[in-house]
Amino acid sequence: MNDFYKKILDNNKQWVETSLASDPNYFQDLAKGQTPPLLWIGCSDSRVPANEIVGAKPGEVFVHRNIANMVVHSDMNMLSVLDYAVNVLKVKHVLVCGHYGCGGVKAAMGNDSIGIIDNWIRHIKDVYRLHSSYLDSIEDETERFNTFVEISVKEQVFNLAKTSIVQSAWKNNQELTLHGWAYGLNSGFVTDLEVNISSNKDLDEVYQLKF
C-alpha cells in the first residue's frame, strides 16, 4: 500500500473521530436523510470544492460536477441530478459556478486536440461562437479569458432555465431560483454574475440586460 493511499484512509478515520467528538450523533443524524436547499453545478476541477466555498456542512449541498460546469440538454447525468434535486429534494436554489482559469474554457479558445474531451469542449466552443464578436474585440488575452468564463456561466444558467424540469417547476409555482457565479482560484472569493432567475419573466429581463 503506497503512502498516499494509506494517508487518505488514515484521514478518514481522523475525520470520523473529530466529527463524533463534536457530536456523538453526527453520522446517525446524517443517515436519516437529506434536505439540501441548494443544487451546485460546478467544474470537476479539484481546486473548486463546493461545500467549502460556501461554508456548508454535509447534507446542505447537492452537487453535480463536470468539465467546465456545463448544462447540456442531452446530458442525462446532469438532467437526472437536476430532476432529483428539483422534484424530490425540492431544492430552492440551483447555482452554476464556474471559475477563472478553467482549463476546459481555455481549451475551447484554441484549436489543439487534447483527446476525447474535444467532444465535450465543442459545447463550450458553441458559446464562444455566439459571442465571438464581443470576445474577439477584447485585446488583452487574460481579460478575454475571464470574460469568456463569465459568459459561459451565464449561458449555462440560461440553458438550465430552458430545461423542461425547471420550466415545469415554475409552471407549478414551485420556489426555485437559478444563479451564476465565477470563483477566483487566487482569492477564494466568488463573483455573483447577477443572473438570478426565478421565472420566465426574469429570464427574459436578465437575458436582455446581460447580452
Automatic annotation (TrEMBL):
Keywords: Lyase, Metal-binding, Zinc. GO terms for molecular function: carbonate dehydratase activity; zinc ion binding. Zn(2+) binds at residues 43, 45, 99, 102. It is an enzyme of class 4 (lyase). Its EC number is 4.2.1.1. Its cofactor is Zn(2+). Binds 1 zinc ion per subunit. It catalyses: hydrogencarbonate + H(+) = CO2 + H2O. The keyword Zinc applies. InterPro entries: Carbonic_anhydrase, Carbonic_anhydrase_CS, Carbonic_anhydrase_sf. It comes from the Bacteria. GO terms for biological process: carbon utilization. Belongs to the beta-class carbonic anhydrase family. PANTHER family: CARBONIC ANHYDRASE. This is Carbonic anhydrase 2.
